[in-house]
Design goal:
There is one protein chain. The chain is of the alpha+beta class. 31% of the residues lie in helices and 14% in strands. It has nine helices and 14 strands. It has helices spanning 50-65, 110-120, 129-143, 160-189, 194-204, 232-235, 296-312, 349-362, 368-394, and strands spanning 72-74, 107-109, 227-229, 250-254, 270-273, 322-326, 342-346, 405-409, 413-419, 425-431, 438-439, 444-445, 450-456, 464-470. The strands form five sheets. Strands 10, 11, 12 and 14 form a four-stranded antiparallel β-sheet that branches. The chain has a three-stranded antiparallel β-sheet with strand order 3-4-5. Strand 10 and strand 11 (438-439) form a beta hairpin. The longest helix has 30 residues, at 160-189. It is globular, with a radius of gyration of 27 Å. It starts with 49 loop residues before the first helix and ends with a strand.
Amino acid sequence: LTQNGLAADKIQQYVGVTWLKTQPFAHERADASRPWMDPGGPSLLGSARDAACKADILSVLRRSSQLNSSEISDISPGKIGNNPLGTNNGQGHPANPATGLPYPANPVATGDFARVLAEFWADGPNSETPPGHWHVLANQVTDNPLTIKRIGGTGPVVSDLEWDVKTYFALGAATHDAACAAWSLKRCYEGVRPITLIRYMAGKGQSSNPGAPSYHVEGLPLEPGVVEVVTDETAAPGGRHFGVGTVGDMVVYSWPGEPGDTTTQTSPVRWIKAKDWVPYQRKTFNTPAFPGYVSGHSTFSRAAAEVLTAMTGSPYFPGGLATFTAPAHTYLVFERGPTQTVQLQWATYADAADQAGQSRLWGGIHVPEDDLTGRIVGHQSGLNAWNLAKRYFDGSIMSEVIIPELTFLPGNLVKVSWPSRRCLYYRVETSSDLIIWASASAKTAATGTEMTLTLAQPSASSAFYRVVWSATP
């Protein structure tokens, strides 16, 4: 089946392969064959970072085992969030800056929180998608009566129209650049998805104990209650692996997939064959049609969070809190649930962005390295886009001094090169006396950060060149 549930008659194809060469808004690079940003490749099985790769896979399986956990977690902004960039080490916020009071506790079952988080941020093919989700959040910020519409948090209050135009301009530019950055990395490194790696490793065995059965250096790491090997004892009637597999098989304690009726039934976590593992997703959307490294959700979300922080002049949502409520028993789509009403809460835009990335770990679509590296790439994408967008807003983009570079070529030719800004229009002019200037080219819209034009050298004994530009053709 295709991602939207239609019968398919061909193998799934790579989606987004052209982003390596798509023109971004603010990104620049020296080598057109390389990603726009390059933090290096992912940890790989069998490489010098083999242990990190296995630890990431085990963390995904551990989360799968907790999807029905009744253990209570406090998901208040006072307890979680406020993470240093590229980590999950935050301890929450000491107080709501709008009220000066501590954030109230928000206790929920871990399994309910995990499933709601995975579904709220899923943003699959029939939704507004991950960048669109952040435009929805931006609309909510815009419509909040506590939002004071000063661009960058300073200066005069602007009209609703000016606020909307500039918000969408910067946010669209940042999420576009996030796509350029993330998908160029996906194409470059072809990072494996959990469903592929888990099933591959399960077919090899276990890699934790060379003296135990089913050992293979590329096997799954063992963890009691999460990843185990079927033994004579556990396979016997009454054993925890009875009816799951044969002796020596790798099994995982995990979500087994959608129930027959997702509106009335659940699929509780149980022991299944590791080679049959599935992520917590719709059965028609087990894995996206592009590589995992880096996470698009994480990159889009952090880029958007940087823009909203800069646009509003505050890292906090209006009033210091944003929420989403998932009603008990009716919200989940993959199965019936949650067992209790869950309210997601975020103090800052970065907190929401981090949870968007974390949701893909609970959903089994990404490993932690995909998420954390994506946040870093998204952070820089957002800052770059905002810093350039500001120059369009204040008009300083039009006051840049352009100094063309001349390269004299055989055949009495000269190549004129100059830095350019996308969507502005440029024209080369020549003069023999620096007083009268003649056009040497038509006005051309810039599509990149550099433009060139090769001309025949004028017959005059001396020639001067300049580049003029404007916002209109």
